[in-house]
Amino acid sequence: MATNCITQSYIELVNAIVNLSDAYLYAARLDDALQLLSSELVELLECEFPLEERVRIQVQRANIMRFKNRLDGSSNDATLGLLFEAEKTAKSLDDRGLLADVASLIGLILYDQELWASTLETPLQYFEQALAIRRETDDQKGIVESLFNIGTVHQNKKGRADEDIERALAYFEEAYQLAEEGGFRWEKAHVARHLGYIYGHQKGDLSTALSYHKEFLDVNEEVGFKLYLPPAHTRVGFTYYELEDLDRALEHFEAAQAIAEETGYQHPLAEAWLGLGLVQEGKGDASAALKYYERALAIAQPINLLGLSAWTKTARIARISMSTDCGNRYHSKNLPNSGVTPRIICTSIADTTLARRAVNSTIATATVLGTI
Fold first, then answer.
1. Is residue 274 predicted with pLDDT exceeding 50?
2. What are the phi and psi torsion angles at 32 (to 5°)?
3. Counting beta carbons within 10 angstroms of the beta carbon of residue 113, is it exposed (0 to 12), middle (13 to 18) or buried (19 or more)?
């Protein structure tokens, strides 16, 4: 009786620690979350936790580390080490649900590492393993997550074809429907942002895209998830930009900038500055736009945001090339040697529409939005 009471108390303690670390994550206080999960108290008591609960702490620590590494460009080697250890323990315990969670997180980290550089076969294997277990255990929320993850592989793998986009869309739509049926609002909104991207950039349906992007923004504002608020705002901002509503686009890019500056994370700040540059150039202020482009590029290159770096360069070239007096200074010098180039390079201020298409085709090829 006493032993059961102690075990239950430890389980409740782990729940409290995980929940508090999630609260820190939502508030963009990743260092505080990691300090909590690595605190002397946790380390002192960890040997007393039931083995399953120890693995939960490991997995949560790895999850927070993944977010931090994505934002500052750090290596995921230590994170993967934690997860491979957790994977062994989950197998020894024959804990199917825990194994699915670990496999899903390993897949996400490998996906981050291989994004745009491979066909993503290895992360796909982990995502499919997680999906199979979750179907077996009837974990509906987990199934939504796994369907979404598999969809992102087809959406973003190297050398993707039209059929890959359609396959991604099918996975996203199934995940969205299941999330709606299960009342999983956060998971549903997470899928919505990728549906918005496909409808906006692959299908050219900006109205539907805007609706999905606003859904993602609304849910993040409701829960106060500060890490996702800047990209949520930029997604809406870029859609308004493509709809040529520059004033509304400006509102969302400025909101993204303010939150990104508050949290101190550079990746979303670079995206906000790129959007502000596009808006300023659209309003005819090429000088202000160039300053924003330069700021975005200065962030993107040091932390290896290769997609954003290429995107910033090509967007800047396409836009600045509309002005013949400054375009000649940047066109030949800054054309990125990245394999990601705009389909159209404009050489006259009259070619605004062509420049917009060039930028949008680059966005469709090299976007980094939604990868947090």
1. yes
2. -65, -40
3. middle
Which tens digits make up the pLDDT trace of 168-217? 999 999 999 999 999 999 999 999 999 999 999 889 999 999 999 999 99
Per residue in 33-77, pLDDT (tens digit) is 999 998 877 777 777 778 888 889 999 999 999 999 888 778 899
Could you write out the DSSP letters of every residue in 256-284? HHHHHHHHT-HHHHHHHHHHHHHHHHHTT
What's the residue count for the chain?
372
- pLDDT at site 1: 55
- For residues 201 and 364, is the Cβ–Cβ distance under 8 A? yes
Cα–Cα distance, 227 to 26 (Å, whole number): 7
Q: How far is CA 309 from CA 75, 254, 300, 359, in A?
A: 19, 20, 5, 13
Q: What pLDDT is attached to residue 341?
A: 34
Q: Which residues contact 275 (CB under 8 A, 6 or more apart)?
A: 234, 237, 238, 241, 249, 252, 253, 256
Sign of the dihedral defined by the CA atoms of residues 34, 40, 45, 47, in that order? positive
Enter the DSSP assignment of 198: I
Q: Residue 235 has which token pair? A: 């997604």
Q: Are 96 and 136 in contact (CB under 8 A)?
A: yes
- What does the alpha-carbon distance between residue 322 and residue 283 come to, in Å, rounded to a whole number? 13
CB 339 within 8 A of CB 314: no
pTM over 0.90: no
> How far apart (Å, rounded) are the C-alpha atoms in residues 335 and 148?
35
Q: DSSP character for 201?
A: I
Longest dimension (CA), the chain: 83
CA-CA distance, 87 to 139, in Å (whole number)?
Answer: 19
